[in-house]
Automatic annotation (TrEMBL):
Taxonomic source organism: Maribacter orientalis
The name this protein goes by in its record: Uncharacterized protein
Highest taxon, organism lineage: Bacteria
Amino acid sequence: MEKIYSNYQEQTEFNKVCPKTINFLLSYSQALFEFEYEDLSFETFLN
């Protein structure tokens, strides 16, 4: 497992992410609201 993981890390390249993308993801995560009622789970957006 250790060898597979280290090989995978060497193959993966991380490019710089545009600040617009980061802002979009942060806004999306802040607008998402999840709640549970009894056995049901609900997701909604707070816009």
